[in-house]
Amino acid sequence: MRIGIDIDGVVSDSYRAWVRELNQHFGTNILELKNYDLSVDFGVSWEEMGKFFEENVAYLFEIPEPMSGAKEGIERLLNKGHEITYVTARSVDQKEYTLNWMKKHKIPHEEILFTGLQSKVDYVLEWELEVMLEDYLGNAQEISEAGVPVLLLDASYNKGELPSGIIRCHDWQEVVKIIKNGSLN
Ligand SMILES: [Mg+2]
Question: How far is the CA of 137 from the centre of ligand 1 (A)?
Fold first, then answer.
């Protein structure tokens, strides 16, 4: 099966690391993100949040640990003969940081698509991905509406009812199990 996998919040435990850094920077004490858009929870403008990321980009992409079970899950899927394409909203300028991080944590990778501000849907369709693993509900909805099933990795910022076509997974073990059983619909 051709599997698409998002990076931040799915392979890289980015938000945990970023929330820690942002708390330090803004003097806040946010423990759990309620919104995918960090500027909302931290009560700052989108521009201010963007500036913080721009100024610290190398560090912020280096520090996250992998999500629990991600490396093992990816290895198991590859061993079963599945093809993995990463689809990330990071920009192509962030390719080097991303590759270095993957290497550092020994995460198997071949193709990584950097969509930047473009919709992920076009990439998912063009690359004929048969399922997408995501943590952002907005992307999950768009991809699912385009006819591609989505596995949504559970997070504090993606709670709520899901439409058919999106399956909530609580951890990587569940992701692997669902793909293995072929129970996507
Ligand atoms: Mg993500």
Answer: 9
The 10s digit of each residue's pLDDT in 138-170 is 999 999 999 999 999 999 999 999 999 999 999
* CB-based contact 13:107 (threshold 8 Å): no
Q: How far is the CA of 7 from the centre of ligand 1 (A)?
A: 6
Domain 2-13+65-181 sits in CATH 3.40.50.1000? yes
What share of the chain in percent tops pLDDT 70? 99
Other residues' Cβ atoms within 10 Å of the Cβ of residue 168:
17
Q: How far is CA 133 from the centre of its chain?
A: 8
In the chain, domain spans? 2-13+65-181, 14-62
Tell me how far the alpha carbon of residue 185 lies from the centroid of ligand 1, in angstroms: 22
pLDDT above 70 for 17: yes
